[in-house]
Amino acid sequence: MIPGLGGRLAFGGDYNPEQWPEETWDEDVALMREAGVTMVTLGVFSWGLLEPSEGVYEFGWLDRIVEKLAAAGIAIDMATATASPPAWFTHAYPHTRLVDDHGVVRSFGARQNYCPSSPEYRRAAAALALQLAQRYADHPAVVLWHVNNEYGCHNWHCFCDVSAAAFRQWLEVRYGTLDALNESWGTAFWSQHYTDWQQIDPPRAVAYNTFANPGHQLDWWRFSSDELLDCYRAEVEAIRPIVTQPITTNFMNFFKPLDYWQWAREVDVVANDHYLRGEDPANLQDLAMSADLMRSLGGGRPWLIMEHSTSAVNWQPRNLAKTPGQMRRNSFQHVARGSDGAMFFQWRASRAGAEKFHSALVPHAGRDSKVWREVVELGSDLARVAEVAGTVVEPASVAIMFGWPSWWAATLDSHPSVDADPLRETRAWHQALWERNVAIDFVEPGTDLTGRKLAVVPMQYLLDDAALASLHAYVEGGGSVVVTYFSGIVDERDHIRLGGYPAGISDLLGARVEEFFPLPEGEAVALSTLGSGRVWSEWISADGSEVVASFSAGPLAGRPAVTCKPTAGGAAWYVGTELSDAGRAALLDRVLAGAGVEPVVGGLPSGVEVVRRRGDGVGFLFVMNHGDEAVDVPYEGTDLLTGTAGPVTKVPAGGVAVIRGTA
Ligand code: GAL
Q1: Of the listed 51, 227, 307, 609, which one is catalytic?
Q2: Known catalytic residue: 578?
Q3: Could you read off the pLDDT of 589-613 as tens digits, one per residue?
Q4: The CATH number of the domain where 331 resides is what?
Q5: Does 247 contact ligand 1 (Cβ within 6 A)?
Q6: What is the pTM of this model?
Q7: Are 637 and 621 in contact, with CB atoms under 8 Å apart?
Q8: Could you read off the pLDDT of 482-497 as tens digits, one per residue?
Q9: How far apart are CA 19 and CA 30, in angstroms?
Q10: 345 CA to centre of ligand 1 in angstroms
Q11: Number of domains composing the chain
Q12: By residue range, what is the domain housing residue 634?
């Protein structure tokens, strides 16, 4: 919830007035009023104009547009403008340029070309942020501070010498002694023992056709996430003493390079950018999963979709336009899952530059267009449901465990199969739950799971001791769990837990894996029930557990594939392959019934998505009908979008309802 918005939902987008002659600005503001825009993000890529040469600041143009917006009652999410250093900066400080793992220096000319460890970059960024804060902190129209933009999007790793020095320092803090580092990285292997910190480089390209040390690589991912977080901190430290508004930066969904559990602890409100992959048939589930993650990162508090698109983007191979009504449903999906608004990239579609084919609120075609009419409609819809601002999505009884170090480690090289993908596995389980309208939260490994009815652990390859302990406590306390293959294999150093996989929890599961039998590319293995498995099979012994399905062909024919061990008050399931969608759905029916998990509203046809937010004594049921037929939704209340009241609400094909009822 953004206090400065006065109870309104955020609606608007990135506004880049500097791309247009000033004559356009009055029309922009008039159009924003027509559409009901409540907030715009200003200045994200304005560094070059705000500081045309070092230490020389020009705020005149920004002052003028700030006043125009303020006079129109439009709030401002003020960017610190540091996402893309200008040409003069890169020229003056050539060592700030990114260097890739082959030592190639990347050139100026796109955006975000800076080394995250560069002290020059951090100093310059903090200085500009400070100038902006000093100038606009007290401006009543500024309601939010937007630090930088999409950290790491184009510069997640830098392999330069400055980064190398920073990496060594980071390692010294983490390990204290070289002995500890050598032990953690297992450097006795292949004669990799270090005797001086100076011998350690970033994991740059190594000899041909071989593999860099996994501990080294894993720490590099950790370090790189931390370095970018330090960039964020440097700006926040500069502005925090001056500004009173909340501070944020925009996340990018399941973005592999940044451990968002750590990042989320440092933002005042979680903000996210999500773009549909036009050609992904399950892209609506992808949106829902991203939104569920963002809400979970913020501990359930309202968050904000900072960027999505009114229609096509420009950076996919084929950029599919949104069909009529799709933008509205997408926006409401985000709001339903806890976003206090719907923001877009960008306000006015560019005429020039690399994003000129990206959709916007004001398209190239102008007001007489499908997009503009839908934008105006969305603005008035969001105003109608403004009372949901600040309410929370009810906590889910199902939690999916997802950790970044595990993702990094699971996808390193030299593993049993290149096809084992924790994100695909996570997505598959989220999708099966989403299709049933079961509410889902994500949890960081090690989180207390008390109160959940079901925890899903989808290919969480790395589980540290805290994560194992929380799983034990939860299952012993009566919780049900589903653990899927290639989980709990290593500790936080990427050392195998010995004694049969997943050694730390195989007693809980009543399943012990002796050996992996990954499948050849594209091949499936038949199961006795639950269809077939892909990608993976393994030699499992069931001990105290029921064999729910066994492999029925190949070298493991007759051996367990899926097991279930009854526990204190629930069940511990183990799945030793990647199930087909149908098989997973069938298994989930049993799992959910056993765990007593109910959908938000049951019995709805497929393609109808429902989520409930709760306020003081009031509930808001959001219904997004992605299907081709109208649907009757049984939930007593009043649809805030149409004003219709009753025990059942008819939601047209492709339509949305927000039914205000009892909590
Ligand atoms: C985001 C970025 C925006 C714009 C948008 C296009 O990555 O923050 O500036 O580039 O994507 O989809």
Answers
A1: 307
A2: no
A3: 999 999 999 999 999 999 999 999 9
A4: 3.20.20.80
A5: no
A6: 0.98
A7: yes
A8: 999 999 999 999 999 9
A9: 18
A10: 6
A11: 4
A12: 608-662
